[in-house]
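2024-03-11 09:14:02 DEBUG pipeline.ingest accepted 1 chain
2024-03-11 09:14:02 DEBUG pipeline.ingest length=244
2024-03-11 09:14:03 DEBUG pipeline.predict start
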Amino acid sequence: MRPEIAVVMGAVAVVLLSMLVYRLTPQGRGLDDQTGRGGSFFLGFWVRNWFYWFIRPVTRVSLALGLSPFFYNLIAVGFGVASLVFYARGQLPLAGWMILLSGLADVMDGEVARGRGMASEAGAFLDSTLDRFSEFAAFIGLAIFFESGLPVVAVLIAFGGSLMVSYTRARGESLGVLCKLGLMQRAERMLLLGLGSIFDPALSSVFGRPTGFILQILVCIIAVGTVATAIFRTMWIARRLSAK
């Protein structure tokens, strides 16, 4: 068994066990939004509630150590840049882990800010902006890995769509209309890229294809999903603004 597969299987076992434990708690029996952060098409309220419950020990340690939200901002960007390096070197599993860790650090930034009472508009702006840099680095790495052809076009479309998904929400929010709807938000994108990169060498080999085959498919899915989400949000927000 490949080492990356063994690590992922171990992580999945921990996740499933923790979900079972959480389901037995009073919080885990509810299906409503307990975090105030909303859900998404793929990641509903219960999964979000479980995830923030799962990382609570890390949050508490971070608060006890006096770590700042900006510390996690920098860590998230650092992992994003690391994913670029590993993609460029063709080390897909390591790049995938860097993307997942970058996403986790991004979540911890908000948790620490709220835990220390430091949540602010400046912090939210910095967090969102640095998220784009992290994502930018990952897509650059993907483009370098694929080198040329249609896969690179798919990477460009996926990155452009990702920016538009974020922009439509931000622009709508600035005009008084909040829209968190859509199929391919940041969490979904990072999970697809991260897990897809980790499993790609093994799965591509199973199908008798070169390394990167599965990742190409996932990048195409992200490209279509982000563009569709951006278009949907554009129309949804425009209608709400017109109704005003």
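2024-03-11 09:14:41 DEBUG pipeline.report The radius of gyration is 18 Å.
2024-03-11 09:14:41 DEBUG pipeline.predict end
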